[in-house]
Specification:
With 228 residues, the chain is of the alpha/beta class. It is 34% helix and 21% strand. Helix 4 links the parallel strand 2 (68-73) and strand 3 (86-90).
């Protein structure tokens, strides 16, 4: 979110998560366990300091192996959800982060940037991420691709920004990152729409990239903070 956030907005955020994800929480956690082990752990050293930006209920944070795990979100339920051993930060991500310069090895964010209210909020968030990343540190951004979804993108009340792999590549470059990988079609769209394939198929899907172009509706963009 962006700017001073009213208490009713925070309460709405908690209710939105409850309505969308509570019934599927065990399934979502099982899926993320496979996604992390089968794919995302390859980007994260087990001694790294990792920030889960827009952590939600912490599915990524709980399952990633890292030396230090930090979760940032405005959702007031987040600290109770992310699990033991995780540091939590409740704040507006477009404001100055409660983290020092050059303190992070990896920033991970999934299905979050589209919820920011303005492009300026996204720009400021990325600038803060660049400040906090160590030289050579990376950001991994996953999100729904407007180019693959069209009108379906707007089926969620709290989607504000229309983003794509091209949008993310451009804004990351403009804010000082070096983009290393951009995948227009990676994962299917959303578990909150009732898509619950057997978890074993998730692992198989990750191993068969030719399927991504048919079923993938989310982009994956990986970028680094340049080494000066």
């Amino acid at each position: 979110m962006y700017g001073k956030v009213p208490m009713e907005t925070l309460l709405d955020l908690g209710r939105e998560y409850q309505n969308r994800f509570a019934a599927l929480a065990p399934y979502r956690d099982a899926v993320w366990k496979v996604l992390v082990k089968g794919f995302f752990q390859n980007f994260v050293d087990r001694n790294a300091t990792v920030l889960d930006l827009g952590a939600g209920w912490g599915e990524f944070t709980r399952n990633i192996q890292a030396g230090r795990r930090i979760a940032m979100d405005l959702n007031p339920d987040m600290p109770a959800r992310v699990g033991p051993g995780v540091e939590t930060i409740l704040q507006d991500c477009s404001q100055t982060w409660q983290l020092p310069d050059n303190s992070l090895d990896v920033i991970f964010t999934s299905n979050f940037f589209e919820h920011l209210l303005t492009k300026d909020a996204l720009r400021r968030t990325l600038i803060e991420g660049l400040r906090c990343l160590k030289p050579g540190g990376k950001i991994i951004a996953l999100g729904p691709n407007i180019r693959a979804l069209h009108g379906t993108y707007w089926d969620f009340w709290d989607h504000y920004l229309a983003l794509s792999d091209r949008t993310m590549t451009e804004v990351l470059t403009l804010t000082g990152y070096a983009v290393e990988r951009a995948v227009p079609r990676f994962l299917p769209y959303s578990m909150s729409l009732g898509m619950t394939p057997p978890v074993v198929l998730v692992g198989l899907y990750l191993k068969l990239p030719f399927l991504w172009r048919f079923f993938g509706k989310q982009f994956l963009v990986v970028a680094r903070k340049p080494v000066e």
